[in-house]
Design goal:
With 86 residues, the protein is an alpha+beta fold. It has a single domain, classed as Dimeric alpha+beta barrel (Alpha-Beta Plaits, 2-Layer Sandwich). Helices cover 33% and strands 31% of the residues. It has a four-stranded antiparallel sheet with strand order 2-3-1-4, with helices on one face. It comes from Actinoplanes sichuanensis. InterPro entries: Dimeric_a/b-barrel (IPR011008), YCII (IPR005545). This is YciI family protein. Belongs to the YciI family. Pfam families: YCII.
């Protein structure tokens, strides 16, 4: 599994792009790729938990969604995660 950490600014482009991004995450959740996703409580960023086997698939996920290149959205970290509880 992988954790994608995002940071946000108040750029209006981010809010305009968010509905399409959330629709995409919802579809990928149904497919089992996105396990969890959501903003931090203070809306300074978000966390997405991906169930993919390798970094290449994470990079493909990021490249396929224009949201991650939108002003106001920064991918801060991508980390491999090895949970022992599901």
């Amino acid at each position: 599994m992988w954790i994608v950490e995002l940071a946000f600014t108040p750029a209006p482009e981010r809010l305009a792009a968010r509905p399409a991004h959330r629709d995409r995450l919802t579809a990928l959740h149904r497919d089992g790729v996105v396990r969890l996703a959501g903003p931090l409580a203070d809306d300074s960023g978000a966390v997405i938990l991906l169930d993919v086997p390798n970094r290449t698939e994470v990079d493909e996920f990021l490249a396929a969604d224009p949201y991650f290149q939108t002003p106001g959205v920064e991918v801060r970290a991508v980390r491999a995660w090895a949970p022992f509880l599901h």
